[in-house]
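How a chain folds remains the central question behind the approach discussed here. No coordinates are needed to read the tokens, only the vocabulary itself. For completeness, the protein is quoted in full, as a sequence line and a line of structure tokens:
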Amino acid sequence: MFRKKTPTHVFYYNSGISWLIFIAYFYTNGSMQSRELNVVVFGIAETSNWRQKLTDVLKFVAGREVTVQDAFRIGRMASGKSRPIIVKLHSIWDRRLVLSNSRALASCADYMHDVFIHADEPLEERRKLTLKRLCRKAERQRKSIELSEDETRLFIEGVLVFTLSDGFVRQDQSVGSSVSSHSDDHGSQ
């Protein structure tokens, strides 16, 4: 018979399995472990030297050399657009330093001015933020906004634009029905 291993840093509470065990298990085996060292970088052009530009951006933001374990682009290639880059850093401290100083990029005069850095979050969280951002943008443009009762679908000017389950919804002109785009929502408007 196989026994399930319990992490050594799990805390026990008097009443059996507690929420502390769940939290410790989540952070050691759940999705946070895979994302806790990651940042997402937007705005670096897809040229042959994009990795060097990424290194320069991270060095500028952190004020020192930052060790990158892995960096890769996500999403489909599209002409005229640059895909976001997932960057796995060496330590959580590097990640915190990069995220806390990322606003300094706005003061640059070169290509770094158009670069943005965000924490890597689960798809559900990114979609919630995108929904809020789309609502604010439509309000600024004085468009009519309607959210479904469960706040999972956004209608702008009576047209379904975004859902939490599928992301952006594009309108198929030939059929007249909406078709989900199933985007990963990194770098969406």
The CA atoms of residues 34 and 110 lie 32 Å apart. The chain has five helices and nine strands. Residues 1-32, 173-178 have pLDDT under 50 and may be disordered. The radius of gyration is 21 Å.
